[in-house]
Amino acid sequence: MDNLNYRTKKIIYKERDDQGNVLRQPVKKDIFIFFKQSVPAGHSTFEVPISRNHLHRRFSFDELYLVPVLYSDQASAFDLDTDEQLDEILTYDIYMKINFDPRNRFYPDTYLGLPGTKATWKLCNDMNLFFEYKKPYGILHLATFFDWIDLRYDPAGDEKFDEFMQKMALVYYGEIYDPVKHYNALPPSARTIYGVNNYLFPTELTEDNLKNIRLRLNIAPNTNVNVSTNGHLREMGFSDDQIGDRNMTNRNFIFDNEETTQFGHITADFPIKETLTYKPVDFRVYCQIIRNHFFSEAVKVSITRRNSFRNENYETAVKDALDNLAQQCNIIFNVSYNPKVKKFTFTFPINVNMRDQTIFLVPELSERLGFAQVTDVAEGNKTGERVDDSPDPKETQDKARALAYDTSVVIVSSLSQSDNNTIISGADYMASLFPTETGSMEMRFNQFGLEPPSMIMPTFATSLPTISTTFSLSTFLDNNTLTDLKWKDGAFIIGILRGVDAV
Fold it and tell me: Residue ranges per domain, the chain?
């Protein structure tokens, strides 16, 4: 079990009456839980997991130390870390929000079929090119497009999709596969969408090909597609059930993709008709945003501890995360690092219809990027402060000592239910940590031998194998106000939690 280590000590009572009968039975063994937990920059809590078998014990701290992460950085600078430590992966959440202006259509343009268009696929392809050309600034992929599938391909089989498509070139095109002619047939911004078919629509429309080919309508996240008529859709192979009824407000047929993390795909139920029977100019298509207040899902910024000491590596890691975010929600954000001034800058799409654009960072990442634990980054604060990634390791103890003595005291309290309330905080007082000459914060032993503050774990949710009890770290401001401890650099909390028989 990670960060959880038990030791036991048996306590035997030998009180007997005059006849030698034991008056008090042996109590349960004490348990000792050893832990080392990270307290990231900007955070003020830590957790210790306790087995449900020990929930009815009374717990107190035997040892407790708060050590600035500066010493971990110093060890790395002195090349003292093991490969296992250096290969540890650090992860941070990042997500974004945007408000789309409800007064304007984010996708302002409407596709109108070109006069004289006779082939059904050409109508689809013309629409693809239109939405590529009219793609609003700030999004990664076009709003909607058609591609196609072949029912003869078995995605569950051993043959890869590209192998199948290239083998079928003679059937599709009447000639052997030529990547120049037959690949990258989709508009450029559609080519990198996961799962799309980037091969040219078949030119050999034989009976067997027509029977097995199906069109597929692809729709960007948080987007709907409005189509003026259902006749053209039927000729593309979409069934009445797929098309649905006309919308009573705008009299269009609407296809929704309410997902915020991926494109939606609607595969036609029936084969495509080779030639249109409806006028192409009657085929009108436009797109709309579904939710104007848009929040993305969180993505991970991942970096190894080995690479975490250089700013350039953080630039790469954050860029990768923002690229993943763009693939998910179709909106482009970026970050850059200026090595001359050692500052990070986020960039946002320039689009009047995209307002209140904000990137949200967890405190430890915002601190590392120079944003001083400001977790929401927008246009007004898009550039952080200087981040020195080449500190002198010889200054570590001086910095740690200054940090510890400036903090003066750290109050450790239990956030779990207990019977140990104090006037210091609304939570339950468990320990006090004081600065040392080396810059760590340590618990001092009670010189009078009094019982240490203790707590009993709550008994709810005992079906879980372990329950994590949460402790808070607090300190005093100069005006004697108790507040959460939030160091600009992280720390490690190290200690021993003792559990004794509560009976």
Answer: 5-79+395-500, 85-100+295-381, 111-291
Mean pLDDT (whole number) for 337-343 = 95
How confident is the model at residue 469, as a pLDDT?
A: 86
More confident site: 244 or 425: 244
Q: Quick: pLDDT tens for 125-176.
A: 999 999 999 999 999 999 999 999 999 999 999 999 999 999 999 999 999 9
Cα–Cα distance measured from residue 498 to residue 59, given in angstroms and rounded to the nearest whole number: 5
Structure tokens at 488: 């600009």
This prediction's pTM = 0.75
Cα separation, 50 vs 59, in Å, equals 10
CATH topology for 5-79+395-500 is Jelly Rolls (2.60.120)
Residues belonging to the chain: 503
In this structure, how many other beta carbons lie within 10 angstroms of the beta carbon of residue 64?
22
Spatial separation of the C-alpha atoms in residues 70 and 89, rounded to whole Å: 18
Place of tokens 């609003």: 136
The H or E element containing residue 75 is helix 70-77
Tell me the chain's radius of gyration from C-alpha atoms: 32
Contact 22, 14 (CB under 8 A): yes
Q: How far does Cα 324 stand from its chain's mean position? A: 10
